[in-house]
Amino acid sequence: MNKKTDHRVMVTHALLKDALVRILDEKPLADVTIKALCREAGINRSTFYSNFSNIHDLIEAMEEDVFRELGSVLSRVIQDLGYIREQVFTDLFSIAKTHHRMFGFLLIDNIDLGF
């Protein structure tokens, strides 16, 4: 079974991403432990390690999700010259709204300077 399309894997990733964002609302990344993250997500540590090797791998997966969504909007602009300029901004702001907490810690808290 392909891990990318396995529903259980997608749910686990979503639980971990949401849990990390909640924890980062309360403390800096340096203070986040795998144990606390797993407790917050309601999963076992072995489940975490079967999906990610560390918290930074999880953050990278979160960044990839955002880039994938942004890339989708930008490719529509390139492929469809009729794509309305206002719609581009609406779509981009919609992504920012959906991921506003994650953007906060990625951009403002400088968790990943490469982002």
Descriptive terms for the model:
70% helix, 6 helices, elongated, 115 residues, mainly alpha
Largest sheet: none
Strand content: under 5%
Which percent bin holds the helix content?
over 70%
Straight-line N-to-C gap: 31 Å
Radius of gyration: 16 Å
Low-confidence parts: none
- Which shape, going by the Cα principal axes? elongated
How are helices and strands ordered from N to C? HHHHHH
Average of the residue pLDDT scores: 83
Number of strands: 0
Work out the helix count.
Answer: 6
Class per helix and strand makeup: mainly alpha
Provide a concise account of the structure shown.
With 115 residues, the protein is an all-alpha fold. 70% of the residues lie in helices and 0% in strands. The chain is built from six helices and no strands.
Explain what this protein looks like in three dimensions.
The protein is an all-alpha fold. It has helices at residues 7-24, 34-41, 45-51, 55-79, 85-98, 100-108. The protein is elongated. The chain starts with 6 loop residues before the first helix and ends in a 7-residue tail after the last helix. The mean pLDDT is 83.
Show the helix and strand layout:
Blueprint lengths: L6 H18 L9 H8 L3 H7 L3 H25 L5 H14 L1 H9 L7
